Amino acid sequence: MPNMLPSSKDLPPIQFSTGQVVATPGALRLLDQHGVSPHQLVSRHVRCDYGSVPAEDAAGNNDALIHGGRVLSSFPVGGGHVWIITEWDHSLTSLTSLTSLILPAEY
Questions:
Q1: Measured between alpha carbons, how far is residue 44 from residues 14, 56, 91, 92, 93 in Å?
Q2: Where are the alpha helices (DSSP H) in 17-54?
Q3: Do 16 and 50 touch, CB atoms closer than 8 A?
Q4: What is the pTM (predicted TM-score) of this model?
Q5: Whose CB among 18, 22, 29, 46 lies 3.0–4.6 Å from 99's, allowing a Cys bridge?
Q6: What is the mean pLDDT of residues 15-23?
Q7: Are 16 and 63 in contact (CB under 8 A)?
Q8: Is 68 helix (H, G, I), strand (E, B) or coil?
Q9: What is the pLDDT of residue 67?
Q10: Element spanning 13, H or E
């Protein structure tokens, strides 16, 4: 049975924008095989639910939200994990972000 999101009134606020969201075929295949919605995991990611990352990585994520950098979440799916990584481009002309769903082996 697919995982269902709680009502939006029960969720913490969104903390950052994903920008463009992309996913590898391997990540999409694993999510599909286990009935997990990529939208559900991205929703957790932008609300600073980083899944199963170690405490020091979660602290680094929180620092990246203040000072810029990469935000990494890791969610167990089936016998593996799906990583969600948001990175910002702080070029002189724009501030854009890209969020990727990827298997650790594909990184």
A1: 9, 19, 27, 30, 30
A2: 25-33, 38-46
A3: no
A4: 0.85
A5: 18
A6: 92
A7: no
A8: coil
A9: 84
A10: none
For tokens 């935000």, name the residue. 71
Cβ-proximal residues to 101 (8 Å cutoff; 6+ apart), any chain:
21, 22, 23, 24, 27, 28, 31, 38, 41, 42, 82, 83, 84
- Token pair for residue 102? 């990827």
**74 to each of 10, 50, 89, 96, how far by Cα in Å?**
22, 6, 22, 22
Q: How many CB atoms lie within 10 A of CB 58?
A: 18
Q: 59 to each of 16, 25, 47, 53, 76, how far by Cα in Å?
A: 16, 30, 14, 10, 20
Burial call 66-96: b when 16+ CB within 10 Å, e when fewer: eeeeebbbbbebeeebbbbbbbbeeeeeeee
Mean pLDDT to the nearest integer, 45-59: 96
